[in-house]
Structure formats: structure tokens, C-alpha cells
Amino acid sequence: MNEQELMKIWQKSYDLEKIEVNLPLLIAELRSEIEKIDSIIINRDRSETLASVFGILLYLFFLWYIPFFWVKTASVMMIMWFLFVIYYLKKTRSSHSVDFSLSLVEQLRSRRQYLLRQQKLLENAAYWYILPPFLINVLFFFGVDSSQTWDSPIAFIFPDNILGKTIVVVFLAILYTYLIWANRNAAQSTYPPLIESIDKVKAELENEGLTSN
Amino acid sequence: METSAFEKIIQNSKASIYRICKIYAVKPLEPQDLFQEVVLQVWKSYASFKGKSGVKTWIYRIALNVCMSSKLKLEKHRHQSMKLTSIRIEAEQINEEEKARFDALRACINELKEGERSLVVLYLEELSYAEISEILGITENHVAVKMKRIRKKLFGCIIKKIENE
Predict the structure, then answer these.
(1) B162 touching chain A per CB within 8 A
(2) What's the complex ipTM?
(3) Residues A1-26: what's their mean pLDDT?
């Protein structure tokens, strides 16, 4: 077997199974596919923003309605946190657009950096996504002053004794601990295998030589 | 987007793209699913194509990047949802001998490491070392060194397989 014969086997493989493309229809389908993908992204972003807007409105209501100083402070902090989450998620997502026309090595390098950023985002979720609302909620529930009388139809939602407040905080602590565990677990099980496989291919391509620019 | 230029690109490169997709498609993904994804990415990237590299190099870069991403499972759940009716497979009259030879070649390519596989498909597409270097992002010298070794492995494997038939 020589090189020509090998090339011939490769080239002829297309003759076994051919691709037929209806070009005018393809263009119409591609346009509609891109619109579909764009609308999925817009809807996902919109629903995340709506959830945060709902949270902001709820805490704006608390800020206006509940008379206690520490509850008002917690409400302002919570609103700021919601705004931060909207900004942070938007910023993180906008920094990732896959450019498939890069060289394979550049593509792998850019994918690796993106995956590392995503892994870090999940691993650090405790510090920016989970702990702040937990601490703010502790302040919020303990901020309801038991010594003052507060006559309101929603007053029953907020425990006014230490035991009731402790139960709420313990419940929140369990919930947030679970969220921290779930995020760390997802970060550890999803990203390292992908990063490892990228490193392997990069090493196979790059060893014994220098990458070109 | 200039649709006639895009149509010309797809028409001229569909065979090459499909051959590469046949190597990288892993069940349950079919080669035509990968082909569709490559075509979609060509369409999306066309607006930003500045002609700095040749069309041929650009197409191979996209095809290889899409196929590699799929193989390494970097883009989960992406291909299954898209079904373009404008792309169809036409099964030709099968020449058993040709099919057996291609199956042997495919098996040998699959025995190579992932990085080597990307080199070998471009070599089989009869691209020059300079073009392969541009597509992969490694030096031309490095392509030559690697290809010497890969060619040896590939020939050793296929000769053995064909003799055993």
C-alpha cells in the first residue's frame, strides 16, 4: 500500500454515502435555526432577570412597609445583591462567545479558560451567591424588633421570639449548606474531566514543538 | 450575508466536511448531525470572515473545531435538537471492497490519539503541511515531525488489517 492508495480510500469514502443539500431551503432553515437559538437565550436571560426583578420588588415592599431599622437595612442590602447578581451573570455570559474559526490549539486554549472560569464561578458560589443572602436574611429576621408592637396583617410571617427566629435561621442554614455542597459537587464532577481531556489533546498536538502564532 | 457565496462554499466543501464528520461522529450522534452543526457554524461565522486565511483553511478550522468539541463533549445537547430537512444522505450502490477498505482505514484512524487524528484527517484531505499548521496552530516543522511518525503507525495498521481480510 502506498500513499496514493491510502488517499484514494479516503477520497472514495464519500462515494459510499453522499450528502445532498437543498441550498435555498438550507438558507431558510439556518435563518430560522439561528432565530430559535437566539430566542432561547433571550428567554433564559429574561426569566432570570424577571426572578431578580420580582425579588427586588418584594424587598422594596418590605423596605417601605416594615418599620424596623435593621429590616430596612437588610432589604436595601438584598436589593443591592439582586442587582449584583443580574450584572454578574450578564457579564460572565457575555465574555463567552465561541469562535470556531480559530486554530484548533487556540480554540482548545480558549475553551479551557472558559471552563476554568465556569468551574471557579460554581466553586465560589458560596461567597457571592449563597452566603450574602443567608447573612442578609439572618439580619432581616432578627431585625424584627420583638419589644415593639407592630400591628400588621403580615406580622405573623415573621417570628417575634428568639426560638422562632432561631428555627428559621437553622432552616436557612441547612438549605444554604445544601446549595454550597451541590454547587461544589457540580463544579468538581463537570469541569475537571473536560479540562483534562482538553489538556490531553493540547499536549498531543503541542509536544515536541512550539505552537505558531 | 451573501447567500450565493455561502452556497458555493457549502457545495464545494460538503464532501470534505462529511468525510471528517464520519470520523468524529460517536453514537448516538450521526455524521449528518455533525455536518449540520458545521454548516450552522459556517453560516454564523461567515459574517466575521475577513479572508485573512483562505476559505479552504477557514472551513477546515470550523469543521475540525466543531467535530473536536463534539468528541470531547464540550457542547452538550446541541446537535440532537437540530434537524435540517434540507440536508439528506444519499446512500450510493455499495461497493463492498471499497467499504471494507474504508472501514479498515477508519478503524486505524480511531486507534490514533485524539491529537494525531486531527492531523491525519487533514493529511488525507491532501492539505499541505503549511495549511495543516495554519488550521491546527502548530508549527510546520512540528507537523512534519508528527506526520512522519503517524504515517508509519497508520500504514502499519492498515496493511495488517487489509492482509487479515
Answers:
(1) yes
(2) 0.88
(3) 88
